[in-house]
Design brief:
Blueprint (H helix, E strand, L loop, with lengths): L5 H6 L8 E8 L4 H10 L7 E3 L3 E5 L8 E8 L2 E7 L1
Antiparallel strand pairs: 1-3, 1-5, 2-3, 4-5
């Protein structure tokens, strides 16, 4: 997903001044099909996928230029990354 401006984020309905889900990181102890199964089961997007050294990365919303981020580990192998602009 491309980085978007704050005005584009507002036009998409992203909440200004509040954290919202940007990415889900799933540890590579999961295979990609297992990760997608977990995402489907929990009603998350799985169509925008990137692979990093340690994670399967599934983007939920566009990154917004100038945002701040924080990560919340929900299980030992799944992290939710939130952004706020």
């Amino acid at each position: 997903m491309p980085v978007i401006s704050k005005s584009q984020a507002e036009a998409k309905g992203y909440p200004r001044g509040k954290y919202f889900l940007q990415t889900i990181l799933i540890d590579k102890s999961f295979t990609k099909p297992e990760a997608i199964h977990w995402l489907k089961k929990n009603k998350y997007r799985y169509d925008d996928y990137r692979e990093t050294t340690n994670f399967h990365r599934f983007m939920q919303t566009n990154p917004v230029r100038g945002s701040t981020y924080y990560t919340n580990q929900i299980f030992g192998s799944i992290d939710l990354v939130y952004q706020k602009f």
